[in-house]
């Protein structure tokens, strides 16, 4: 017994005697045999980032395999810890008994941070963002009031949007409203509807919402393409738009800056709708076909070539792709909703004479002269007929 | 009917013993009449064909703080006294969020595409059925068999050829102390339908025949 | 007005259409996870 203790003590002393010139980290790492060090554990407890490469890269190798006849030969060079790390970082050669996507992943830990982000930041952004714009617009309406036609409407009308333009717009608008409402119902159902109306009511609403959301999305995507094709030529930015913005579009003060078919603000909404709508559609398609359309890994790789400092992960688990797609979808959709609420405001109560453009396509001539003077000139040069308000069409 | 509510139910799979026979997968599909395309339990093989090959059978881990339960937009999950995580197919809308949240890939869906719904989510129930009445026809059609209510163990573990897959109950200190106090208060034989969690902690985790004891592990 | 209502009606009809077309296109789990040799109901 004593000999053993003395022997152990001598060995301990010897390890202190032999001190290679490693850094503190490496010394710690060496002392734990390549496993977790005290620093790692403390960092994790404080919630700090831990560089996991010492685990990720330590997966064992068949090169280290002992001969099959030796006692450790059947391990093939992989200890149980190596196997676990291979599973944990999804680096192992996996075969699975079923045939569905993502079954190969034994452990993924993106789920918790995803759901916390959804419940926290995403709900907060949607709630405060959409609530905020509605309150801001209400405040604007009750102080500044409605934009009126100076001198009142003329009673004469000119055609602004043809039937197919209005059809395309309303397909897009109708589907967008349904998508927005159902999406928000799904986001807030558990936190808002269940406490008031209970589980069954929320489930019925959620069932309806998800059916409508996922099926009307196709109409939205098709209409988006149609809108782009119809109006892109009229929405090319020009210097005139800078002048329009400089004058605040006339909403501040009383100017009537010049504009052609679409003014600067409308072009902004057009491009926001196209760009954000395309983005939300891409992530939406990814969600419609789970695990079939991963896009984030490639996107991150592209961003990394432009901004190497970002260091975004270029290898993502299928679950992580879907989680990111969901979060991106929600964030972009919320941004669109905020913008479109303002668009709806100005197109309905916010401005006298604006709704007619999409209502029956005939706008008051005086309204058109005040807001789209150059467009009126172009139309009249082409010989566009002038109608009377109240004409049956 | 339950495991006695004295400890949490978990699955343990010994990767050293698993031989990838897939008896557990087959037993589960058979016992619960699981339809095509839905695989409550799967066997994952690492380094297949090479020395050091390992297999693990995984279904639902019945997490104490289940992420699926936390994320569900219709809050259709619940947890029994035994820690078994179950859900209601009546409330489920088939959105698929529980699969994104689950670390282990337990939720399964009848539809691969999400066109309005992925269908009602189905997953391992620890052979404990669902919210319908125990051992009723409705419960069987929706959730599969309720073996726990009959005092039996999950089918997968019963079938395991090498005793690699164990259904165990895991003790927490709180429950251990509560159990100890109630043991002291009323020492009696376990009644019919009650599984032997009230006996003193066994020294071995298997009984004499090598079958897994519904063991009490001190954690 | 008429155009707007027509557009809404088209939107609703098209979403039903999308649903029926997509459910025929074979994305159920049993179809995705099995092979052509498997006889499904």
In short:
By secondary structure, chain A is mainly α. Chain A has helices at 2-17, 24-31, 38-45, 53-56, 80-88, 110-144, 163-231, 239-246, 264-288, 296-306, 318-347, 355-359, 365-371, 373-381; strands at 94-96, 156-159, 362-364, 386-388. In chain A, strands 3-2-4 form a three-stranded antiparallel β-sheet.
Structural description of this entry:
The complex is a heterotrimer of chains A (393), B (219) and C (41). Chain A has 393 residues and is mainly α. Chain A is built from 14 helices and four strands. Chain A has a domain at 110-161 and 236-388: Fumarate Reductase Cytochrome B subunit, CATH 1.20.950. Chain A has helices at 2-17, 24-31, 38-45, 53-56, 80-88, 110-144, 163-231, 239-246, 264-288, 296-306, 318-347, 355-359, 365-371, 373-381, and strands at 94-96, 156-159, 362-364, 386-388. In chain A, α6 (110-144) packs parallel to α11. Chain A starts with a helix and ends in a 5-residue tail after the last strand. The mean pLDDT of chain A is 89. Chain B has 219 residues and is α+β, with helices and mostly antiparallel strands. Chain B has a domain at 168-218. Chain B is 21% helix and 15% strand. Chain B has helices at 23-32, 67-71, 97-101, 137-143, 155-159, 173-185, and strands spanning 8-13, 42-46, 54-58, 77-79, 85-87, 165-171, 216-218. In chain B, the strands form three sheets. A three-stranded mixed sheet of chain B has the order 1-6-7. In chain B, a hairpin with a 7-residue loop joins β2 (42-46) and β3. With 41 residues, chain C is an all-alpha fold. The termini of chain C are far apart. The model of chain C has no long low-confidence stretch (mean pLDDT 89). The chains are: A mainly alpha (393), B alpha+beta (219), C mainly alpha (41). Chains in contact: A-B, A-C, B-C. Chains A and B meet through α5, β1, α6, α7 and α11 of A and β2, β3, α2 and α3 of B. β1 of chain A pairs antiparallel with β2 of chain B, so a sheet runs across the interface.
């Amino acid at each position: 017994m004593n000999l053993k203790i003395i022997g152990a003590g001598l060995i301990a002393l010897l390890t202190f005697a032999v001190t290679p010139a490693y850094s503190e980290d490496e010394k710690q790492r060496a002392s734990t045999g390549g496993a977790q060090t005290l620093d790692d554990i403390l960092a994790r407890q404080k919630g700090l980032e831990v560089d996991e490469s010492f685990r990720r890269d330590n997966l064992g190798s068949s090169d280290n395999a002992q001969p099959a006849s030796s006692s450790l030969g059947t391990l093939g060079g992989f200890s149980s810890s190596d196997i676990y790390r291979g599973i944990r970082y999804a680096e192992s050669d996996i075969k699975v008994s079923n045939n569905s996507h993502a079954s190969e992943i034994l452990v993924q830990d993106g789920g918790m941070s995803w759901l916390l982000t959804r419940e926290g930041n995403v709900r907060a952004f949607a709630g405060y963002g959409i609530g905020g714009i509605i309150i801001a617009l209400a405040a604007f309406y009750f102080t500044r009031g409605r934009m009126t036609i100076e001198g009142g409407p003329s009673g004469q009308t000119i055609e602004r949007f043809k039937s197919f333009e209005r059809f395309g717009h309303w397909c897009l608008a109708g589907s967008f409203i349904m998508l927005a409402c159902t999406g928000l119902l799904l986001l807030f159902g558990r936190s808002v509807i269940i406490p008031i109306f209970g589980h069954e009511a929320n489930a019925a609403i959620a069932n309806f919402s998800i059916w409508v959301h996922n099926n009307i999305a196709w109409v939205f995507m098709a209409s988006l393409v149609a809108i782009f094709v119809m109006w892109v030529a009229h929405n090319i930015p020009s210097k005139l738009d800078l002048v329009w913005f400089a004058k605040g579009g006339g909403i501040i003060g009383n100017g009537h800056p010049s504009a052609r078919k679409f003014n600067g603000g409308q072009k902004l909404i057009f491009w926001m709708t196209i760009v954000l709508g395309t983005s939300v559609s891409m992530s939406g398609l990814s969600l419609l076909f789970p695990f079939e359309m991963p896009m984030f890994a490639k996107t991150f790789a592209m961003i990394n070539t432009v901004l190497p400092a970002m260091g975004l992960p270029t290898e993502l688990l299928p679950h992580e792709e879907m989680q990111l797609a969901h979060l991106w979808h929600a964030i972009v959709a919320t941004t669109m909703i905020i913008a479109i609420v303002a668009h709806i405001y100005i197109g309905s109560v916010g401005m006298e004479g604006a709704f007619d453009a999409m209502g029956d396509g005939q706008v008051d001539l005086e309204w058109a002269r005040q807001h789209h003077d150059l467009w009126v000139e172009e139309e009249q040069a082409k010989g566009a007929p002038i109608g009377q308000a109240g004409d049956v069409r | 009917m339950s495991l006695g509510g004295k400890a949490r139910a978990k699955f343990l799979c010994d990767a050293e013993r698993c031989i990838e026979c897939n008896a557990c997968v087959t037993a589960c599909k058979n016992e619960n009449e699981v339809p095509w395309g839905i695989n409550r339990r799967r066997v994952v093989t690492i380094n297949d064909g090479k020395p050091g090959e390992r297999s693990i059978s995984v279904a639902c881990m019945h997490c104490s703080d289940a992420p699926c339960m936390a994320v569900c937009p219709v809050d259709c999950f619940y947890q029994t006294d035994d820690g078994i995580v179950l859900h209601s197919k009546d409330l489920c809308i088939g959105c698929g969020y529980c699969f994104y949240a689950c670390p282990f890939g337990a939720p399964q869906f009848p539809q691969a595409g999400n066109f309005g719904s992925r269908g009602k989510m189905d997953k391992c129930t620890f052979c404990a059925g669902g919210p319908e009445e125990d051992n009723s026809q409705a419960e069987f059609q929706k959730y599969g068999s309720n073996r726990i209510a009959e005092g039996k163990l999950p089918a997968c573990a019963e079938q395991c050829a090498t005793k690699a897959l164990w259904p165990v109950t895991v003790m927490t200190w709180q429950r251990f102390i509560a159990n100890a106090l109630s043991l002291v208060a009323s020492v009696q034989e376990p009644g019919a339908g009650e599984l032997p969690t009230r006996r003193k902690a066994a020294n071995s985790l298997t009984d004499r025949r090598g079958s897994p004891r519904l063991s009490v592990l001190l954690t | 007005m008429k155009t707007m209502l027509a557009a809404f009606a088209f939107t609703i009809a098209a979403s039903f259409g999308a649903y029926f077309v997509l459910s025929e296109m074979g994305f159920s789990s049993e179809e995705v996870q099995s092979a052509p040799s498997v006889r499904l109901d």
